[in-house]
TrEMBL record, chain A:
BP GO terms, sorted: cytochrome c biosynthetic process; cytochrome complex assembly
GO molecular function, a single term: heme transmembrane transporter activity
Transmembrane regions: 21-41, 47-68, 103-123, 129-154, 161-182, 194-217
Protein name, as recorded: Heme exporter protein B
InterPro entries (alphabetical): Cyt_c_biogenesis_CcmB (IPR003544), Cyt_c_CcmB_bac (IPR026031)
Family: Belongs to the CcmB/CycW/HelB family.
A cellular component term, taken from the record's GO annotations: plasma membrane
Compartments where located: Cell inner membrane
Naturally occurring in which organism (per UniProt): Parasulfuritortus cantonensis
Gene: ccmB
TrEMBL record, chain B:
Protein name: Cytochrome c biogenesis heme-transporting ATPase CcmA
Superkingdom per UniProt: Bacteria
Gene: ccmA
SMART domains: AAA
Native organism: Parasulfuritortus cantonensis
A GO term, aspect molecular function: ATP hydrolysis activity
Domain ABC transporter span(s) in chain numbering: 8-229
Automatic annotation (TrEMBL), chain C:
Organism: Parasulfuritortus cantonensis
Transmembrane segments: 23-45, 65-86, 98-117, 129-148, 160-179, 199-224
Primary location group: membrane
GO molecular function: heme binding; heme transmembrane transporter activity
Protein name per UniProt: Heme exporter protein C
Superkingdom, taxonomy of origin: Bacteria
Pfam families attached to this UniProt entry: Cytochrom_C_asm
Annotated membrane topology: Multi-pass membrane protein
Cited function: Required for the export of heme to the periplasm for the biogenesis of c-type cytochromes.
Keyword terms of this UniProt record: Cell inner membrane, Cell membrane, Cytochrome c-type biogenesis, Membrane, Transmembrane, Transmembrane helix, Transport
Recorded family membership: Belongs to the CcmC/CycZ/HelC family.
Length: 222, 229, 247
């Protein structure tokens, strides 16, 4: 069981290593979207630090959705998704493995770039730390819930936009708790409450979404 | 030479695609050392039948049994003993043939070492492409990679949907050889093909998919009203 | 045995088609009657609110609409769960038939919320916890309907929509909680429609009657829609073809 999970994750990491273009595109998307905001709302550091948490989190949601639309699509196109579903292992592990691999490939880099962008947005040091922490706890939610959407929209026309439409509302709690943690730090009230709620939400999605994603995969493949 | 005990059996199987009922009341069984040749024109449901047999799709009615157990109950055992090659090869273009084979082995839970993978690919005529990414291989060569994976999987039942597509004359002869070896060694095959295959001497069970099978038995009142077309 | 079950599944939409046809007028007329009584209470019986003036009367639509939008989502989730558990086609059809009405009520609650917000807060839109939750619920409805419309195969569409509805249903309480949490942090509007200090008994009565009107309307609308869906899905069967030709 665990061997299969690790095999799925290693497979996706290997494929991502062979396709660095896709990976870089998603990271640069994140950086560029965030960088557009100061140009739109002005360079005042006080205002920028106030919106930083929200802007970075919204950009992270969009960047995640952008890469998620291909989570299963490539494997579906070349038939390897079918082959993996036909392995004697439960599809839940496949869905979980794909989501975890997505998090490792796309989520972790986001939180590593985030401090640089935080500095651009005049965030103080402790807020940058909390921002990274909130992304560390929150980005798995994006990958897990997104995997459900990716499985549901597999092979549909306009799948990418549709995925955004389906999944963005479900991301609301992650956005609120994640950006809220940064805001709370700035306001000096401490981010523990927000981070704990975010962690609870993450654990819940971890328990629920692989099952739904696996069911959705079976429905979409049929 | 054929073992008559049915390993795979199908009972009153019905299949629909979209709103169209493709066939109903299909029954057959297959034992070790037998090859089921699925025949029928385009759009008659050959591919749909094969996908039902793999367990990827679910029948409208009826049941498929593997070793006497319904597919839904014994999925794990069935998928351990079954290998499927559909229209798509299921190989990753970014990886080399060897990597593809070893990856498939890992996912199946049967890790394969480098030498075994290389031997499987060499046997199938891909000795010169072992460390090229599959992206640069021709269509027929990629098909061969998939076939090598099929053989290497060591599965009892092969489900093959048009395995000859994209293969040259040598390739077709090679597939014939593979089928002979597999069935001769007690393996089972369910396949479709549009091309003629020399399978003489093998226990071939023909199965015609299409409206002939959908004719209701006399007096069967519960036959769902089928579309008139 | 298995054939009798198949027959049952086949017949269920057919019997329901007839049943729904007989029930629709009852629900439709009840909805109309209740709405008339409710509107009468809203405008002529209920007293003017001393704090909020006449503008508060929009709650007779706003509150039932908001309730119904949430309630219908739960009903959809129920039918989705039933459909996925027992693979009953009619359940999926019910879920599909309810979605547009649910979205309509969610939209109505947003609209009336805006109408009420203008005199109360001086702005058409305020990021109040309830309104924001309604907005996100509306987005969920839109997402589910968009997914249905993107999938051509009815069987896949049914199941995919049901899965999305269910994961949304699990998420809705969390979304609601998170939005309230967010709202208290950011000190949004503190006045709530339901917290009107003088909640007269007539107001509650009027609101309940309007809620029942909305409920019956939702049932009637869903049944009309489900009849359409049944006919469309079953158009290849004899009985549906007879109905279609008879018209």
């Amino acid at each position: 069981m665990l061997r299969f999970l690790i095999a799925v994750i290693r497979r996706d990491l290997k494929l991502a290593a062979r396709r660095k273009g896709d990976w870089l595109t998603s990271q640069f998307f994140f950086v560029m979207v965030v960088s557009m905001f100061p140009l739109g709302i002005g360079p005042d550091p006080a205002m920028l630090s106030k919106v930083a948490g929200g802007v970075l989190w919204v950009a992270a949601l969009l960047a995640a959705l952008l890469s998620l639309s291909r989570l299963f699509a490539d494997d579906h196109r070349d038939g390897s998704l079918e082959q993996m579903l036909l392995s004697p292992n439960p599809p839940v592990l496949l869905a979980l493995g794909k989501a975890l691999a997505h998090w490792l490939i796309y989520g972790i880099p986001l939180l590593l770039i985030a401090p640089v962008l935080g500095v651009q947005f005049a965030l103080p040091g402790d807020a940058i730390g909390v921002l990274m922490l909130s992304l560390l706890v929150g980005t798995p939610v994006l990958s897990l819930l997104g995997s459900v959407g990716a499985a549901l929209t597999l092979g549909l026309r306009g799948g990418g936009v549709l995925l955004t439409l389906l999944i963005l509302p479900l991301y609301v709690p992650a956005l609120i708790f994640g950006a809220g943690a940064v805001d709370a730090t700035l306001a000096g009230v401490g981010a523990e409450a927000n981070l704990s709620l975010l962690a609870a939400f993450m654990v819940m999605t971890l328990l629920v979404s692989p099952w739904v994603a696996a069911a959705a995969l079976r429905v979409s493949i049929e | 030479m054929s073992d008559t005990a049915a390993v795979l059996s199908v009972h009153d199987l019905a299949c629909a695609r979209g709103e169209r009922t493709l066939f109903t009341g299909m029954n057959f069984s297959l034992g070790q050392g037998q090859l089921l040749l699925v025949q029928g024109g385009n759009g008659r449901g050959k591919t749909s039948l094969l996908r039902l047999l793999t367990g990827l799709a679910h029948p409208l009615a009826g049941e498929i049994r593997w070793r006497g157990r319904a597919l839904a109950d014994g999925r794990e055992l069935f998928h351990r003993e079954m290998a499927y090659l559909g229209h798509l090869n299921g190989i990753k273009d970014e990886l080399t043939p060897v990597e593809n084979l070893r990856l498939a082995g890992d996912l199946e839970g049967m890790p394969m070492d480098q030498a075994t993978a290389e031997r499987a690919l060499t046997d199938i005529g891909l000795a010169r492409c072992l460390d090229l990414p599959c992206r640069v291989l021709s269509f027929g060569q990629r098909r061969r990679v998939a076939l090598a994976g099929l053989v290497a999987s060591g599965s009892l039942l092969w489900i093959l949907d048009e395995p000859l597509t994209g293969l040259d004359v040598h390739g077709v002869a090679m597939v014939e050889g593979l089928l002979r070896d597999h069935v001769g060694a007690g393996g089972m095959v369910v396949m479709t093909t549009h091309q003629p295959l020399a399978l003489d001497g093998l226990a071939v069970v023909p199965l015609l998919v299409g409206p002939a099978l959908t004719r209701p038995e006399p007096g069967n009142q519960e036959e769902p009203a089928c579309c008139a077309s | 045995m298995s054939s009798s079950i198949a027959w049952f599944k086949f017949a269920a939409p057919m019997t329901f088609y007839g049943l729904a046809g007989r029930l629709i007028p009852w629900f439709a007329w009840s909805a109309g009657l209740l709405a008339a009584i409710g509107v009468y209470i809203a405008f002529f019986v209920a007293p003017t609110d001393f704090q909020q003036g006449e503008a508060y009367r929009v709650i007779f639509i706003h509150v039932p609409a908001a309730w119904m939008s949430m309630f219908l989502y739960l009903v959809m989730a129920f039918w989705s769960a039933v459909g996925l558990a027992w693979n009953t086609r009619l359940s999926f059809m019910m879920s599909r038939a309810l979605a547009p009405t649910g979205a309509l009520f969610a939209f109505l609650s947003l609209w009336t919320g805006a109408l009420w917000g203008k005199p109360m807060w001086g702005a058409w839109w305020v990021w109040d916890a309830r309104l924001t939750s309604s907005l996100i619920l509306f987005f969920l409805y839109v997402g589910i309907m968009a997914l249905w419309s993107a999938i051509d195969d009815p069987r896949r569409g049914d199941k995919a929509g049901a899965l999305l509805t269910l994961i949304g249903a699990i998420n809705v309480p969390i979304i609601y909680f998170s939005v309230k949490w967010w709202n208290t942090l950011h000190q949004g509007a503190s006045i709530s429609l339901m917290k009107a200090p003088t909640m007269a008994a007539t107001m509650v009565t009027g609101m309940l009657i309007m809620t029942f009107a909305a409920w019956f309307y939702a049932i009637a609308a869903a049944m009309i829609r489900v009849r359409g869906i049944i006919l469309e899905r079953e158009r290849h069967t004899e009985w549906a073809a007879e109905i279609l030709e008879g018209k």
